[in-house]
């Protein structure tokens, strides 16, 4: 069984046979795993995508860059005992390719397409920890939290949306010690940059094309979970597998409420949450008729059911993504994903409630667990800059001679005045 020991400046580290003292970034990852009560001798990834795997990954944004990744990475590792894996933003592996013998060995630890290797599921691994930290990382052998993975080494780098910088997924090389050779991390970083450049080129080319009449998307594209972007925006943007639909403020409000309250809302409850003043039933019904037409074009097969009102298929809010990142302890990434208050111009009571819940969850998580650098970044936001508790905590964590302290002190004094 594993034991936890206190080792002075090294903090708590797992004293398992064959483990050496970890690097700081690995130690932090181990701590997060222990906080989630993961057992290093019993943790296994969950196979979350099975029957729907093909449809999901064919509709994923990274599907279009897979030929590039195969050309730059896979063909060079095939037959060399190494694997190239590409996963989504939640840590689920979508493609695992490379040496056939290595793939067969990797199956024993469920390093297979469809398995979730997020850090909050399996502890320290290159794919999961790279997503949690939002930067490239190399994990050597016993650095892995899960003892089943000992004997393997890996390097992983996240891939971002070229415009919003939201995480789209991760590229990983797994195998023997060559997987963490000095050139591997720069190679993966260059591959990720090439993939992001191709995604941007595809998007720009799409914008230059004449817009065709609305048509039903291919089933594969419809399989990915649509994302509703509302943070820092007064209107909505619905992203269905790369197909973008702009939404009016009222339609964005209704979809946000139905996405947040997935169990459904009565007609009266939806009216009270969606309108700042009392609205008639006929007003809501007319708006829902118009919204159903928009959904019929943007998301065929997604409808608004009645009694209660609810979506027939879940939409993910960008606010949900921020909360998920906070739950995973990825504070820096969560703060970067928080583009601003949700529908800041909306006076709808239900939107104000979601907006405040998200703001409070972000603040509390950063105050409790975030590093000094992340707190300083939050202190530069409109919310953080007027929050004395945030400013004091950032000041407490900053080194005594940090040049960042002067600006924090100046803001605190201004607040006190």
From TrEMBL:
Q: Which Pfam families match?
A: GAF (PF01590)
Q: Where is the GAF domain?
A: 95-197
Q: What is this protein called?
A: Transcriptional regulator
The organism of origin for this protein = Gryllotalpicola protaetiae
